[in-house]
């Protein structure tokens, strides 16, 4: 299961404090094609990864625009999967390019304010169980695997955490977006990319 932690303070008191600290894991099938986080086009307006699965290209799971919009998407376990359904990532794409002013917040909020602690947190081998809501979602679908799927950093055959992302927005609107992406479906090979820009709001 994907997971997202964040801390939001729109008016930080301290000069060194952050408006936003976000740490997220993308959990997905290793074979599902995607592009690592980057700016979408020459305008460099939106920074996100892109889903490249045939028929669902162009969606995303986490992104931020220079105008201060941000969207994230996590998995939801369901017993029956509609293989013809539109890619879930299209929801993130729609948010980033529309006038919506909020996104779906997760219940769990915890994080300290710098990259090292953020990556330590989301790469940890910690289970989220017991969690009645998660157990209810997974009872007909992945119950035998639920304990592995419920870890912060998922490691299952063919499925698991493929990207770790930490986004920091400081009190002056400066954004640091750092992503670690698994290479070649190999949990020992990772690429780290960092982008920095100023919000235009």
Automatic annotation (TrEMBL):
One of its GO terms (biological process) is Golgi organization. It holds the Pfam family TANGO2. GO terms for cellular component: Golgi apparatus. This is Transport and Golgi organization protein 2 homolog isoform X2. It comes from Notechis scutatus. The lineage of its organism: Eukaryota, Metazoa, Chordata, Craniata, Vertebrata.
